[in-house]
Amino acid sequence: MRRRKNKAAARREPSVRTASADPRAALAPPRTPRLPAIAVLAGLLIAGGVIDRRVDRASTESASSINAQVPIAAPASARSSAWFCPGAPVAGPMGEGSVVVANAGSRRLTGTLTVFPERGDVRRAPIAVGPSGRTVVRLADVVTATFASALIELDGGEAVAEVSTAGAMGDSVASCASSASSSWYFAEGVTTRDAGEVLLALNPFPDDAVVDVVFSTEEGTVSPQALTGLLVRGQALTLINVGDFVQRRESVSASLVARTGRLVVSRIQTFDGSAGRKGISVGLGAAAPGPVWYFPEGLVAEGLSERFLVYNPGATEAQVEVSLALERGEAEPLRLTIPRESRLAVVAADESRIPKNVAHAVTVRSVEGPEVVVERAVDGAAPSSRTGLSISLGARLPALRWATAAGAADDTSDHWVIVQNPGDRPARVTLNLLADGSTPAVGSFTSVEVPAGQRRALHVNEALKRAAVPMLLTSTVEVVVEHDIYRLRAPGLGMSPAIPLR
After folding, report:
1. For residue 113, what pLDDT is reported?
2. Which of 125, 173, 229, 420 could disulfide-link to 480, CB 3.0 to 4.6 Å?
């Protein structure tokens, strides 16, 4: 780990391509010492109640703030819900993208799928998903394009949505966003000769947005003129080829902050294999820096590398602590200082406190200074049986109920659900399949204990074989969940946080 330089670097500034816009709209008074004793007591009780309410309100506002920044399903009582899905390949050499929706509720949901291609007309199609069911829509069945993003609007809650891609470069899975935001951040990014990085900014609303884009690299920060005050047209998808602005960089973090409007921004990172790394990762950005990031799954093994990218977009340095929960043994936390507008990488294989072939969970906390954005990058190559590329944000919000939409557990895909219990009480978790109107338990995964501060990996393939495995996990205490799909005998690391239900 080393400090990044903060020298300015000039770059050429080509034009940015924007899709055609669809013209239709988207979506206690002070007490005196002369008061009787009973009045004083009453005043104290009232004041205490006011303080309690203030504390409760502050706590609620804090939780609500996080809820607005992370993917989270609308409650069952909601009359409507929306999911903004990351830009993904539609069809071609990078693979084929699909939108996958799972319904954890007890009634049928209907609505509209709107697909925004990088060029051409916006298209709409009806969508429906039954109770405890799943629906998959191939983007190529709706539009003809290289890349596209999607908006899903449903007439109720309890639904979750993910984007999956599959192709010769590998498989990937990513959560859709449950709300748009005026800011988006990415800790990881690479534009070396063997790599490609594209940011996809979706503006699903009628009004245009104006955005400033800043990159932080190993040579300092870059603010391309063409990306300062960038116009992102309403009801359109705008592509930013990062390599056109910061060339041949091994470390490219990005901040996109809107002066006006709100967006949903995702990243497609690829490696062609010419320098060793090969694969594709589709991922949603972080709508805001956060105080804590959870990664339930981690492993250092032969052929399998793991890095944690900690990005500080703030104006002052940040202090963070990286804690590990080993499946066997214990490890001291790491303490890092992240310079302003910079990132540091924690390479798991370089840390003697992280033993090889011992699964672990990682928690990254801000302890002083600005909050940060944290992503985990995993590369797999022979002799590892897990090959390909995964770049994913950590989860930020422990919850009692979690759901997944994408993935399979069959002869081609190895599916795991990993539960991290960051609390101080043991959790008992139950994993259920969303099976078209019923919710049977997945094998023996009922009331599985996850000790306080520990993790537990549930291997879905051991319990069933099924081409579609949308799932619901419930817990007695708040936990963090991710689901990982490993393609067998082919590249594919689909590693992503599950989606919490309110």
Report:
1. 98
2. 420
